[in-house]
Amino acid sequence: MKVRKRLLIGFIFLFCVVNMFATANLARAVRLKDIATFGGVRTNQLVGYGLVVGLSGTGDGTSSQFTIQSLVNMLENMGVRVGESSIKVKNVAAVMVTAKMPVSAKPGTRIDVTVSSIGDAKSLLGGILLQTPLKGIDGKIYALAQGPLVVGGFSAGGAAATATKNITTVARIPGGAIVERGVPFKFNNQDVVTINLDGRDFSTTTQVVVKINNAFGFDIAKAEDVSTIKVKVPVRFKGNLVPFLASLENLDISPDSPAKIVVDEKTGTVVMGENVTISPVAIAHGNLHIVVQEQPLVSQPAPLSQGQTQTVPRTALAAKEEKRNLMLVKGATVKELVDGLNAIGATPRDLISILRTLKAAGALHARLEVI
């Protein structure tokens, strides 16, 4: 009975330990679709040049010759002949129209467009975009955009004051473009699906390959390089890739990454990964502040005297050196590293200098990237 009891206790303990590690790994797990993209599932950028009309005197000025020329060409195409000298474009603005068309978009699908002024228009509020063809990189027209603009702000003012909220020279047209030509790509005809991982890490790539092969019971995935995986489409999913990709994108992955510290010197922001460690090292950090201030005085002679008014120089000098003790920092985790740096009163700006010095000393075991 005692032996069975010990075996039972040992089994329960082992089960708790395994469950603890499984829970820890599950907490770090993310879905494959959160760290990767699938080949063939992408957007295509479209761009076009157009005119916005109906503005309340906030359009381009006479210095925007391309706006005048565009307006004249448009009127001539409609059978109206007009001279450039008689055109006033204060109610018209030349704009660039951009859109993102998904690969699944078919003729008749509506997509959102963004309209941006390229002249000296003050505001696009109240304007209407005239029919504008949107082209792809191959020069072909894929969509036509037209409609009233939605501006997320306003601008008003007079001779002495103005009031502006947000940007009034950029606007959106929800569903403002109609797709006229689809991208020539047959999604379901693929025999091999390409998975592009966002990060470049051999451990994560290997883990994804193993997870895919285990999920389907045989080897269908193979790593092409550090961030590209080729997956053969099983026979039962050929011609019907949607359920196959739905199964792939919901696989739980625990991504790994190298120890890395990213520093933004413009804002003083420091971001550290959990794998950052340092060797035992002593740090002393302090600054010497010297302030020199000139406070000249005016020497005024007595009345009816022969003296002259003079400026007498006066200098105030102060020197202050911060007293910082030598602090021993020996961190095995990022928490201990941060606690050690906080113990010596390091500010974000100080952290940048300390981290650079640690890297130069060979005590910081992480990649230091400055952006």
Give a description of the structure.
The chain has 371 residues and is an alpha+beta fold. The chain has 3 domains: 127 residues, no CATH class; 68 residues; 98 residues, no CATH class. The strands form 9 sheets. Strands 3-4-5-10-7-6 form a 6-stranded antiparallel β-barrel. A 4-stranded antiparallel β-sheet has the order 2-11-13-12, with helices on one face. A 3-stranded mixed β-sheet has the order 16-15-25, covered by helices on one side. A hairpin with a 5-residue loop joins strand 6 and strand 7. The radius of gyration is 34 Å and the shape is flat. The two termini are 66 Å apart.
Number of helices: 6
Shape: flat
* Helix and strand composition category: alpha+beta
Low-confidence parts, pLDDT < 50 over ≥5 residues?
7-27
Rounded to an integer, what's the Rg over CA atoms? 34 Å
Helix content: 10-25%
Distance between the termini: 66 Å
Number of structural units classed as domains: 3
SS strand fraction: 25-35%
Physical arrangement of strands within the biggest beta sheet: 3-4-5-10-7-6
Chain-averaged pLDDT? 79
- The tally of strands reads 25
The profile of the biggest β sheet is:
6 strands, antiparallel, barrel
Gist?
The protein is built from 6 helices and 25 strands.
Secondary structure: elements and pairs:
Layout: H1 2-28, E1 30-31, E2 36-38, E3 43-53, H2 65-77, E4 92-102, E5 110-117, E6 128-135, E7 141-148, E8 154-157, E9 162-165, E10 170-179, E11 192-197, H3 202-216, E12 221-223, E13 228-232, H4 241-249, E14 252-253, E15 260-264, E16 269-272, E17 277-278, E18 281-283, E19 288-294, E20 297-299, E21 310-312, E22 315-321, E23 327-329, H5 334-343, H6 348-361, E24 364-365, E25 367-370
Parallel strand pairs: 15-25
Antiparallel strand pairs: 1-14, 2-11, 3-4, 3-6, 4-5, 5-10, 6-7, 7-10, 8-9, 11-13, 12-13, 15-16, 17-24, 18-23, 19-22, 20-21
